[in-house]
Specification:
Elements (H helix, E strand, L loop, with lengths): L11 E3 L15 E6 L1 H7 L4 E14 L3 H12 L9 H4 L1 E5 L12 H14 L4 H7 L6 E9 L5 E5 L4 H11 L3 E6 L3 E3 L2 E3 L14 E8 L2 E7 L5 E4 L3 H16 L1 H11 L3 E9 L13 H9 L4 H10 L4 E10 L8 E10 L6 H4 L1 H10 L1 E3 L2 E12 L6
Antiparallel strand pairs: 1-2, 2-10, 3-4, 3-5, 3-7, 5-6, 8-9, 9-13, 10-11, 11-12, 13-14, 14-15, 15-17, 16-17
Helix pairs in contact: 7-8
């Protein structure tokens, strides 16, 4: 097993002179963190390259007279709710349907045989013929539709003339293509992990990250090995998320194990997501094991137990990490690990209503700049598993 996973160290005050970075203002306090290679990957502002499968194309249609009339009527009746199908009227998407998933197999020859059969079936997909027969005179643009191993789809901007774009889709359909993403941070709280590899992580390497307050605003930047500016942290919420991720790794052994599998090249990372709105209703679903154990050891009446369970529905935070294992042969199936972190402030009403419960959970919670959280439960599953 390689060096264990870590993300960021607790912040500590430092006397670092930010004037050496060209910053003229003099902040009262400067906080320094140690950032791991993984933390640096997640915060870096640069683009990354990933591999997807081209599964189809999206076409912009040339506006016809009938479409122009619809659009004009839409502009005329501005007071009416916008028609969600307006954009769809000007686009058409073609997706290959003959994408047969090969289950994980232990026999390499059998997996190869199934792969060969899949290759023979692919030309029979009618969508391939539809794409080949596209009338370019009716199209304004063509974009590729890509899909990763977890089934997430993205659009691929193609270069060249319309004819060249059409030919590219025909030549590369159902084949792997390299795509460039503008950033690791692809949406609010969502990070693309496929640009990171185990060889990029050295546990002993520590990057200096500074955070300081100037003129009523917080700023953060990463330093290089010579203590010069490497890059600014443009979204300080992402620094906050690194602290949360460290808390989750520290308190959730399954999450740490999943990361360590990727470090050992036993798995490949896919995506990391922070979801502050999980909305798991524990009054309707199973009770987390930590509370089952508490209820069995404490003498609590039913109404108090119900109040405790209701409090679990508030201030949930999900740290979701998806990855694929390297086991067997065939198409890898993504595994998702969700660490449900619970903010202790959701239990404040229990200080008086159920003080024994509050005291027990308070001992489990860890404190950081992100808040006081504890692991409520860990949910792990894969796409081929059916619910019980």
């Amino acid at each position: 097993m390689p060096d264990s996973i870590w993300i960021i160290t607790p912040g500590a005050y430092t006397d670092f002179d930010v004037a050496t970075l060209g910053i003229k203002a003099r902040p009262k306090r400067v906080m320094e963190y140690g950032l791991s290679d993984i933390g640096r990957y997640l915060l870096q502002p640069g683009s990354i390259e990933v591999e997807n499968q081209l599964v189809g194309c999206e076409c912009d249609l040339v506006s016809t007279n009938s479409r122009r009339v619809r659009q004009a009527l839409g502009r005329l009746f501005k007071g009416r709710p916008p028609n969600r199908d307006t954009a769809a009227l000007n686009k058409k998407t073609f997706l290959a349907r003959n994408v047969v998933k090969i289950p994980s197999l232990k026999d390499r020859q059998l997996a190869g045989h199934v792969e060969h059969l899949r290759g023979m079936l692919q030309p029979l997909d009618p969508v391939l013929q539809e794409i080949a027969d596209l009338n370019l005179a009716q199209l304004a643009d063509i974009r590729g539709v890509c899909q990763d191993e977890a089934g997430h789809r993205t659009l691929l901007t193609l270069k060249g003339s319309l004819t060249e774009k059409h030919q590219y889709v025909r030549d590369h359909l159902l084949k792997p293509v390299r795509t460039t993403l503008a950033s690791v941070h692809i949406a609010d709280g969502l990070f693309e992990m496929r640009g990171w590899r185990s060889g990029l992580f050295t546990a002993k390497r520590r990057h200096r990250l500074l955070r300081f307050h100037v003129d009523g605003k917080f700023f953060a930047c990463l330093l290089n090995a010579k203590d010069r500016m490497a890059f600014w942290i443009n979204d300080l919420k992402n620094l906050h998320r690194m602290v949360l991720l460290q808390q989750a790794v520290d308190t959730s052994p399954p999450l740490a194990e999943a990361f360590n599998q990727c470090l050992a090249d036993e798995a490949r990372p896919m995506r990391l997501m922070f979801n502050p709105n999980l909305d798991i209703d524990y009054t309707r679903s199973r009770i987390p094991q930590v509370y089952k154990d508490l209820f069995s050891s404490l003498d609590l009446d039913i109404e108090v137990q119900r109040n405790v369970i209701r409090s679990l529905n508030h201030h949930q935070l999900g740290v979701s990490f998806s990855y694929v294992t390297q086991e067997g042969f065939g198409d890898p199936l993504p595994i998702t690990n969700i660490s449900v972190m619970h903010d202790l402030k959701a239990l404040e009403p229990l200080r008086t209503g159920a003080p024994q419960v509050f005291a027990a959970i308070n001992q489990r919670a860890t404190v950081s700049e992100a808040g006081k959280y504890y692991l409520l439960e860990n949910i792990r599953g894969r796409s081929d598993e059916s619910e019980p």
